[in-house]
Write a structure and sequence with these properties.
Layout lengths: L2 E4 L5 H12 L3 E6 L12 E5 L5 H15 L4 E4 L14 H29 L2 E6 L12 H20 L5 E8 L6 H8 L7 H15 L7 H13 L6 E4 L1 H12 L2 H12 L4
Parallel strand pairs: 1-2, 1-4, 2-3, 4-5, 5-6, 6-7
Helix pairs in contact: 1-7, 2-3, 3-4
């Protein structure tokens, strides 16, 4: 029986992913800052506290996970925070907060699990990024940068860790307006959209809210499971119809064609 450790399981994509793996017979180590009893009640489930910005917390979660189930076959770096803001008016401490969780947290978790997987000669690391890695949307520059960093990190490890038997994969969800993640990202915008950008930001949010093709948590969970069980050399797994559309456009268009199309889609009244 295989075991997966998932970060950021309190709600949204992480919680849905934990449930998806449980339903398919896996042992699941579901981690979050404060364990939520909403996921309890299963003998193949362990709920553990984990702060991905704290090295001691990371080491303790990995140790407890191995003690509970013997081995960890798959790590899913899902924990993350969103931010909708005008870059000009976003303080550096807020930008660093986003990077601490989204970028350095994922790196720290990966570094902590590699020795265990390397010694076994097998394992899979899945980093959950975003469709902003196909299209760097406006008003999310720090968030996009934190996720693009993980894309480069993951592709580098795709080659590097193959030499020791570890597979590395990316799951790239689209926009999920129904998740706590999206709501929290909007909540953090307070005071971060200065006057010159307020009209544009309002128009952009209205466009996002009216989007027909969006991503739901079950689609992300299915993509993560596919990445965990896929035997091919595929690196990227877009999740959700909007992410798949952006991925296809990015891969099949020239840069000029893609950017022209995006600019047309995002063009607002000044």
């Amino acid at each position: 029986m295989k075991t997966v450790l998932i970060t950021g399981c309190s709600s949204g994509y992480g919680k849905a992913t934990a449930e998806h793996f449980l339903e398919r017979g896996w042992q699941v180590i579901a981690t979050m800052r404060q364990p939520d009893p909403g996921l309890s009640g299963h003998d193949r489930l362990r709920l553990l506290p984990l702060d991905v910005t704290d090295d001691a917390s990371i080491a303790d979660a990995v140790r407890q996970g191995i003690a509970a189930f013997g081995d960890i076959d798959v790590l899913v770096n899902n924990a993350g925070i969103g931010l909708f803001s005008a870059f000009e008016s976003t303080p550096k401490n807020i930008i660093r907060e986003v990077f601490e969780t989204n970028t350095f947290g994922a790196m720290a978790m990966t570094q902590a699990i590699i020795p265990h997987m390397r010694e076994r000669g097998e394992g899979t690391i899945i980093n959950v990024t975003s469709s902003v890695c196909f299209a760097g949307m406006p008003m999310v520059a720090p968030y996009a940068a934190s996720k693009w960093a993980i894309e480069g990190f993951t592709e580098s490890l795709f080659y590097e860790l193959d030499s020791v038997g570890i597979r590395v994969r990316l799951v790239e969800p689209g926009y999920g307006p129904g998740t706590a993640f999206a709501a929290n990202g909007m909540a953090r915008m307070s005071g971060l959209v200065s006057v010159p950008y307020q009209v544009y930001a309002g128009q952009l949010m209205a466009q996002f809210e009216g989007a027909g093709a969006v991503t739901v948590a079950d689609q992300v969970a299915a993509a993560v499971f596919a990445a965990a069980t896929d035997e091919s050399e595929k690196l990227r797994f877009p999740a959700g119809p909007d992410s798949e559309h952006l991925a296809n456009a990015r891969w099949n268009c020239t840069d000029e064609q893609f950017l022209t199309g995006m600019r047309s889609m995002l063009r607002m009244t000044k």
